[in-house]
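User: For a reading group we're discussing how well predicted structures match intuition. Take N-acetyl-gamma-glutamyl-phosphate reductase. Before you show the prediction, I'll give you the sequence so everyone sees exactly what went in.
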Amino acid sequence: MAQQPVVFIDGEAGTTGLGIRERLSALPVRLHSIDPALRKDRDARKAAMAEADLVVLCLPDAASREAEAMAVELGADAPRLLDASTAFRTDPTWVYGFPELSPEQANAISSAPRVSNPGCYPTGAIGLLRPLIQAGVLPAHYPVCINAVSGYSGGGRQMIEAHERDGGPAFELYGLTLEHKHVPEIHTHAGLTARPLFVPSVGHFAQGMIVSIPLHLSMLEGAPTAADLHDILARHYAGQDHVRVVTADNALSAEALAHSDIMELRVHGTPHTRHALLTARLDNLGKGASGAALQNIRLMLGLS
Ligand SMILES: NC(=O)C1=CN([C@@H]2O[C@H](COP(=O)(O)OP(=O)(O)OC[C@H]3O[C@@H](n4cnc5c(N)ncnc54)[C@H](OP(=O)(O)O)[C@@H]3O)[C@@H](O)[C@H]2O)C=CC1
Ligand SMILES: CC(=O)N[C@@H](CCC(=O)OP(=O)(O)O)C(=O)O
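Assistant: Thanks. Here is the predicted 3D structure of N-acetyl-gamma-glutamyl-phosphate reductase, as structure tokens, for the group to look at:
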């Protein structure tokens, strides 16, 4: 029997790491772990990397960069890397791990030595914008405004503890310098030429996310209707397991897809409105993190 590929999750005890570990139990892989007391020990992490075929980095950005440097030091023994942080998402030497962007993207992920897992908010924003830009209906220079709300698990262990111990705010806008770390990622991978304006927020619920983007249809090529935009998205994602283009509702709860790896896309608006609202609903820990990582792990290891 062929040997199972070895996977090491650097940051296994964190929010994203735990989610990936849980999902990996369904795959024919061997998980290589290190003594939890040594989880931040450089030598122990490097030795674990040398044992692995694939290392999944579930770390803050600085620790991910350090891990990548350690992999380079391993030379010919370097494992392939999948990084869940923001560190390499706009680095052209890494492949962006969003397989639904195109069949070519899925192929590129399969053979790449370095793959960056998309951010939670960018998954929703890029998932909505890119097919419309590609289809030529949304101009790349459109002044895009993105509003989004996340469950508090989006802030990792520290934010989870703050909400669960101290209550946390019911609803809070943040990133109000308008320089959130996800802006360059959305700008690059949506295919926009104009920098998008992004306003995130966090609510007092654990998991779930809505990303919403209002559009003035009269400013789009050919003045399409909301139904036309729905059809473009539906054609783009036809046959995909993790992204569904569904009928618009009059209200949307952010928590409905908690514990799911599916993302739902909607186009709201009636034939009478000259406005449309694009929405993406997902679990920030599911398709927004660990669920997407599992898709990439399957592709990288050739597991169907
Ligand atoms: N939470 C989310 O919704 C999403 C998170 N991500 C990204 O995934 C990454 C991990 O986030 P998340 O799981 O939420 O964060 P957590 O804080 O929950 O987990 C991070 C883990 O990394 C460990 N760690 C920190 N520094 C080091 C180090 N130098 N060496 C080894 N381990 C270290 C932490 O240990 P300790 O706690 O002891 O410090 C912790 O176990 C981040 O880059 C984040 O941006 C991506 C998409 C969504
Ligand atoms: C609520 C909250 O704080 N969310 C995080 C985003 C989640 C995250 O850090 O993950 P990725 O960048 O890897 O997607 C934030 O805004 O920084």
